[in-house]
């Protein structure tokens, strides 16, 4: 059985570290999301279904807002941190950021749903008319999931644009410093005639 080469081991390590980091961040963000959101409530009405007033409807959209805020902050910091930390190969790290952000976004939604209120439909069946039950914690607008990858890529770009380790751009014309004689001093006051 052949052992993987050093490059193969480095790639596997990058995949495990980056995706593992985003998994842990998604769990922490899901816990924070479940703690910060004040859940909306359904009121049981005649016929057995639930109704929501305007205040509770605003709370429902507030859950998406908190998801977006947490995703933007955590995603940006993750993009900066992971890109700066895993500098062995910027291309591999950058290619792993979007799948990592997707893992974090899905994990955050899943953990938040687990820690938030349970199924409101089942809870409505067990209460009397006029009683309230909390709405389960879930993302109601799919574009909110995009906050993670957008924020992660913005954080990565901050590191990549400010990184002094990137190769310099090629020069299009020769500068005056390249045309001077290396034996002559660089100070123009000391030049010989």
Which descriptors would you attach to this protein?
193 residues; mainly alpha; 3-stranded antiparallel β-sheet
Characterization of this structure:
With 193 residues, this protein is mostly helical. The chain is 60% helix and 5% strand. The protein contains six helices and three strands, in the order αββαααβαα. The chain has helices spanning 6-36, 54-85, 90-115, 120-125, 147-162, 176-179; strands spanning 41-44, 50-51, 132-134. Strands 2-1-3 form a three-stranded antiparallel sheet. A hairpin with a 5-residue loop joins strand 1 and strand 2 (50-51). It is elongated and about 95 Å long. The termini are far apart. The mean pLDDT is 81.
- Which whole number gives the mean pLDDT? 81
Helix/sheet category = mainly alpha
Order of helices and strands: HEEHHHEHH
How many runs of DSSP E, i.e. beta strands? 3
Q: Which strands sit side by side, in order, in the main sheet?
A: 2-1-3
**What helical percentage do the residues reach?**
55-70%
Shape: elongated
Rounded Rg = 27 Å
Overview in brief:
By secondary structure, this protein is mostly helical.
List the topology elements.
Elements: H1 6-36, E1 41-44, E2 50-51, H2 54-85, H3 90-115, H4 120-125, E3 132-134, H5 147-162, H6 176-179
Antiparallel strand pairs: 1-2, 1-3
Helix pairs in contact: 1-2, 1-3, 2-3, 2-5, 3-5
């Amino acid at each position: 059985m052949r052992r993987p080469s050093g490059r193969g081991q480095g790639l596997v390590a990058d995949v495990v570290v980056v995706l593992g980091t985003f998994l842990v961040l998604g769990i922490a963000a899901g816990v924070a999301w479940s703690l910060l959101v004040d859940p909306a409530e359904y009121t049981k009405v005649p016929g057995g279904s639930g109704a929501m007033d305007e205040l509770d409807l605003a709370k429902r959209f507030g859950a998406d807002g908190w998801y977006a805020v947490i995703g933007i902050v955590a995603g940006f910091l993750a993009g900066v941190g992971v890109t700066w930390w895993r500098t062995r190969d910027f291309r591999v790290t950058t290619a792993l950021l979007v799948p990592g952000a997707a893992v974090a976004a899905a994990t955050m939604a899943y953990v938040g749903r687990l820690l938030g209120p349970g199924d409101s439909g089942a809870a409505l069946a067990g209460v009397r008319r006029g009683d309230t039950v909390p709405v389960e914690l879930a993302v109601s607008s799919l574009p909110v999931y995009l906050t993670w990858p957008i924020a992660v890529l913005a954080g990565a770009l901050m590191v990549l644009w400010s990184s002094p380790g990137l190769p310099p751009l090629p020069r299009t014309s020769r500068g005056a410093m390249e045309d001077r004689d290396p034996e002559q001093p660089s100070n123009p006051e000391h030049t010989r005639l």
